[in-house]
Amino acid sequence: VQLQASGGGLVQAGGSLRLSCAASGFTFDDYAIGWFRQAPGKEREGVSCITGGGSTYYEDSVKGRFTISRDNANNSVDLQMNSLKPEDTAAYYCSTVERGLRRWGRGTQVTVSS
């Protein structure tokens, strides 16, 4: 199982970024994929999730600003992040649970300046 997040960067408050998670090594269509983030000194937290069927979940602080989507043909999940705030600054990771184990990809850093 491989998960690779990309698309992070430095953006001003109010700006947008689009993260992408490329997946391989498992039957992608069958699995929910989640985005998590971890800010310095804080625990990793769930941000958004999309099931294999396309149902979505958002953490309260990102509702209305972030949109998750998946492309099963290309084994990828995107996270469109709009109206970014300094408190969104964190390393962002995509993840799935495969054969009972939480699988993590390498993260991508998002930094939002005020």
The biggest sheet amounts to: 7 strands, mixed
Task: Tell me, rounded to a whole number, the average pLDDT.
Answer: 96
> What is the overall silhouette?
globular
Count the E strands: 11
Spans with pLDDT under 50 lasting ≥5 residues?
none
Q: Roughly what fraction of the amino acids lie in strands?
A: over 45%
Radius of gyration: 13 Å
Structural class, from secondary structure content?
A: mainly beta
The DSSP helix count reads 0
End-to-end distance, in Å? 37 Å
Q: From N to C, what is the helix and strand string? A: EEEEEEEEEEE
Helical residue percent band: under 10%
Q: How is this structure best described in words?
A:
- The protein is an all-beta fold and about 110 residues long.
- Helix content is about 0%, strand content about 55%.
- The strands form two sheets. Strands 2, 4, 5, 6, 9, 10 and 11 form a seven-stranded mixed beta sheet that branches. A four-stranded antiparallel beta sheet has the order 1-3-8-7, with no helix packed on it.
- It starts with a strand and ends with a strand.
Concise synopsis of the structure shown:
By secondary structure, the chain is mainly beta.
List the helices and strands and how they pair.
Layout: E1 2-6, E2 9-12, E3 17-24, E4 33-38, E5 45-50, E6 56-58, E7 66-71, E8 76-81, E9 90-98, E10 101-104, E11 108-113
What structural keywords apply?
114 residues, mainly beta, 7-stranded mixed β-sheet, 4-stranded antiparallel β-sheet
